[in-house]
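Worked example 3 (structure in, sequence out).
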């Protein structure tokens, strides 16, 4: 949950700091006069240029505090512009108690005002987030309430509430990703999932190690062998209200709570951020936690295969063969390519439920970061319509993803001398795509999309929008996808 309370109103509450949009050329939006402290001449004197995200604080003679928020050119304002400028305004108003957004004055014709209002709320809440559990003197944001002011406020209330729910789900995912691995063990992550399910009203089933053996999840068991911490497999289910038939979507999130690389040991530097290797599972849990409140017309099953990957004395060795849920055998030639092994079991199990679609998220390959960096996820799948739905949802949510091909010619890279598959391809060749080809072996004929979030899952630096650490990437994309989901034609 975000600690900020959000509301929509036609007028601004007295005593609040007001964030007002300013366009390049120091112009006000048409029909939206500025408060008295805000004058173009004053802004020019202060060197304010209204660059997108630039903020200048002004105080009037009556004590009224106004934040001039640069929006750039009026014809370039998008929903994501609103999301990011709201974040910048919050950073500038860090120690005030009440903040008013008049930023919807900048929304041009043709831009969905409800989507813009939702984006304002998301940007504000995500910028205010800090993980301070282990800080003796946390620098917490003091903003307790944000009011989105607009003449059509009564029509925007639902969008503001939706934005708050989405932001709360992202903050949950970020909390989980930022927890130290010593505190968030597989058992503890499963307990957090159970607690969230109880809080919001989801069905939850947690498989312990004995049940995982019974379910033939050989990939999960193989990866878990080197750890003293037992694995868990979490299944969450959201049933939409009403009795009309609806499609089922399965969400799968990679849940490696710490990845040492196993016997194919990572370097010390390579392990520093490996508590975040469960970002896919965190995203799925975060998204699932918001579904009862948002009530999309789709049944959703969330699957979290959760374990550590450690080099203990029982750890799998290069050359070992695992038998996965669907009977496919995998020769493990690199124990640091473990995420695809646990996903294999979860994908196969999800496909058995004959859903309309399966979407998985995973911090899967370093090659994704090389190809697309830390702002864009890699996207692959077996159904073009589903891939396009995921891509479009990510664009609307401000979480871009770029489609990559599942090139059939590269399938031979996974040929094994002793098993059905090996778990790595050829060194330095299409690592992200080959990992996708591996996962495809476990979804059968079910339409499937895969998001490789290795780069976007972690912010290396505070960029004014998201603080350094876990980003919760994927939560907004999943919730936007489920809000507008249409079953792929190939699933009907």
């Amino acid at each position: 949950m975000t600690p900020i309370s959000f509301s929509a109103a036609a007028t601004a509450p007295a005593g609040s700091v007001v964030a007002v949009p300013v366009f390049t050329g120091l112009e006000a939006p048409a029909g939206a006069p500025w408060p008295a402290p805000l004058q173009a001449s004053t802004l020019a004197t202060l060197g304010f240029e209204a660059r997108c995200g630039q903020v200048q604080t002004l105080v009037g003679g009556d004590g009224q505090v106004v934040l001039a928020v640069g929006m750039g050119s009026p014809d370039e304002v998008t929903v994501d512009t609103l999301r990011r400028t709201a974040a910048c305004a919050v950073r500038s108003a860090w120690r005030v108690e009440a903040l008013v957004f008049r930023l919807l004055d900048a929304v041009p014709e043709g831009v969905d005002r409800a989507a813009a209002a939702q984006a304002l709320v998301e940007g504000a809440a995500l910028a205010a987030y800090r993980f301070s559990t282990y800080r003796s003197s946390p620098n917490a944001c003091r903003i307790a309430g944000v009011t989105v002011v607009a003449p059509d406020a009564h029509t925007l209330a639902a969008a503001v509430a939706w934005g708050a729910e989405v932001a709360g789900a992202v903050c949950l995912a970020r909390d989980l990703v930022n927890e130290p691995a010593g505190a968030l063990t597989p058992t503890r992550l499963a307990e957090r999932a159970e607690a969230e399910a109880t809080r919001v009203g989801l069905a939850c089933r947690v498989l312990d190690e004995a049940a995982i053996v019974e379910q033939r999840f050989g990939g999960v068991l193989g990866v878990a062998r080197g750890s003293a911490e037992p694995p868990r497999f979490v299944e969450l289910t959201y049933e939409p209200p009403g009795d009309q038939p609806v499609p089922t979507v399965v969400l799968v999130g990679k849940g490696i709570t710490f990845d040492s690389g196993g016997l194919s040991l990572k370097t010390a530097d390579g392990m520093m951020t490996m508590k975040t290797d469960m970002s896919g599972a965190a995203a799925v849990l975060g998204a699932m936690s918001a579904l009862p409140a948002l009530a999309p017309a789709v049944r959703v099953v969330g699957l979290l295969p959760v374990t550590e990957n450690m080099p203990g004395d029982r750890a799998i060795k290069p050359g070992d063969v695992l038998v996965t849920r669907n009977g496919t055998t995998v020769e493990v030639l690199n124990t640091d390519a473990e995420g695809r092994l646990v996903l294999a079991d979860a994908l196969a199990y999800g496909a058995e439920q004959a859903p309309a679609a399966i979407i998985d998220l995973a911090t899967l390959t370093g090659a994704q970061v090389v190809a697309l960096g830390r702002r864009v996820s890699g996207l692959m799948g077996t159904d073009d319509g589903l891939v396009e739905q995921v891509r479009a949802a990510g664009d609307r949510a401000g979480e871009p993803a770029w489609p990559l091909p599942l090139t059939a010619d590269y399938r031979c890279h996974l040929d094994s001398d002793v098993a059905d598959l090996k778990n790595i391809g050829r060194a330095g060749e299409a690592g992200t795509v080959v990992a996708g080809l591996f996962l495809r072996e476990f979804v059968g004929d079910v339409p499937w999309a895969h998001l490789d979030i290795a780069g976007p899952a972690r912010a290396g630096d505070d960029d004014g929008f998201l603080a350094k650490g876990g980003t919760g990437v994927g939560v907004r994309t999943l919730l936007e996808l489920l809000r507008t989901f249409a079953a792929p034609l190939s699933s009907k």
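Notes: The chain has 14 helices and 20 strands. The longest strand covers residues 299-309.
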